[in-house]
Amino acid sequence: xxxxxxxxxxxxxxxxxxxxxxxxxxxxxxxxxxxxxxxxxxxxxxxxxxxxxxxxxxxxxxxxxxxxxxxxxxxxxxxxxxxxxxxxxxxxxxxxxxxxxxxxxxxxxxxxxxxxxxxxxxxxxxxxxxxxxxxxxxxxxxxxxxxxxxxxxxxxxxxxxxxxxxxxxxxxxxxxxxxxxxxxxxxxxxxxxxxxxxxxxxxxxxxxxxxxxxxxxxxxxxxxxxxxxxxxxxxxxxxxxxxxxxxxxxxxxxxxxxxxxxxxxxxxxxxxxxxxxxxxxxxxxxxxxxxxxxxxxxxxxxxxxxxxxxxxxxxxxxxxxxxxxx
Length: 326
Prior knowledge:
The protein has 2 domains: 2-176 and 224-253, Rossmann fold, CATH 3.40.50.720; 178-223 and 255-293 and 307-325, UDP-galactose 4-epimerase, domain 1 (Alpha-Beta Complex), CATH 3.90.25.
């Protein structure tokens, strides 16, 4: 039996694929390579090139590989850009998720781990976010992830009395950084770590997007979590689904300890040895002031823990990116 990973050639998906393979869970990747890289897929792991909007392809892949479950990572993940491209965002993240669910139902595949996001919370008015914190997304991206959770929950209810009831969980990522394998790096043109790395590699000064947020130093305060920890949590979630163990409908994969963008910049200079004073630019639309989560439920059920310091996060990501250009 195998697990299909949609978006498995991307930064996060490729780490999940490696973690599944290490656990003997036979991953198969479905990816259109619009933002992923075929070189991120390990040798021996099947790569099916195609879109999550291609329902027949998803169903065919599930059947051909006798998939036991799906880890649905594929989607459009840029909150700021989603404000300018809402229709594209909803097509990829809402329609795409619906089609994955349809294909799973047709192929009698009943286990699903969904890649959700801290963006479902918007700008919470609490110091630490829990799974029950009210959801008020501030971007089409956040809205699309929340709708995805609703779709999956409704399908779970609809199939509860069937021969193959959908068992599922949604893992809400916070700021995923670092690298667990030097062959895989974050190539996003919008995420903080790769933006800083690209600037440093080009001899340019990194930029902070806004310093007038309602935080102690004026820059966004976020949870930063290592991608290898994120991948490990997916493996445990998949194993719980397969075994029939109890599982919550959603988990926050947070660190409980936020860091500001300015603090990340300080770590960047410290680890890379490149001194710089970041340029301050305008805010990006859809970016909340602060969002930090407890992660207590995930620690209880998914062996979730933060195994890396901020310097280790920066160092692993920097080394992977430099290797790519070596």
